[in-house]
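Q: For a teaching handout, I want to show students what a protein-ligand complex looks like in token form. Below are the inputs, and the small molecule is adenosine-5'-diphosphate. Please produce the holo structure.
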Amino acid sequence: EATIEVSGLRKRFGQTRALDGMTFGVQAGQVTGFVGPNGAGKSTTMRVVLGLDAADEGTALVGGRPYTSLTSPLRHVGALLDAGALQPSRTARNHLLWLAHSQGFAAARVDEVIDLVGLGTVARRKAGGFSLGMRQRLGIAAALLGDPPVLMLDEPFNGLDPEGIVWIRGLLRSLAAEGRAVLVSSHLMSELQDTAGHLVVVGRGKVVADTSVARLIERA
Ligand code: ADP
Ligand code: ADP
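A: Here is the structure, written as tokens, with adenosine-5'-diphosphate included.
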């Protein structure tokens, strides 16, 4: 049984068919790459899983239950959806302290996640001056606050320099090796092929290939 189970999701925005039967599962213990061109429906799928968008049809379950029925959802699912969204006038650390406080997480966890994402040297600077790469790290830190078994990261490589991309890949692998289910989207296969053990390739709102990287290479 998959930790995230997406089944037959359909969703229209006006005339746009964003999801057209999206179906796949995400297992714990590995990185699942969610790959496809811009507009393929990756973000919408994640938003539906998180209950931020309603699907017209289909189901999305986390640990066998709808996200909105989890008692403490932020302890089960950490998400990075839009790395741009943060209070620019707060320091990175104060931003995380505020999130931890509002979500009922221990303040001590803040310094742990700052170390985990490598923001130690800039944690006391205002986040408004952060590069997109530093914002991505801050967003990942926020997603890790509740130490969730499930992570969903939408385009975490955006805006990162090559060093940052290598760093995020390592972090994703180690988070999965600890037994988490990790779903990571990208419009570039090259960003995920060495990191994801499982690839879900999507286009026009549905899955066009669902395979292990090993099997994909065998076929080539
Ligand atoms: P991806 O994340 O793969 O780039 P999205 O899920 O963001 O794809 O978008 C899928 C399709 O749905 C696109 O055509 C996009 O323009 C459309 N879409 C997404 N969100 C909205 C929205 N809030 N209003 C209208 N159209 C939307
Ligand atoms: P309750 O209503 O009993 O508080 P919870 O939603 O808190 O239910 O979850 C009950 C158990 O299921 C917890 O031990 C939690 O760790 C586990 N669990 C819930 N969601 C997930 C998930 N997405 N992935 C893994 N384990 C989960």
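A: Two things your students might notice: The chain has a mean pLDDT of 92. The two ends are 29 Å apart (CA to CA).
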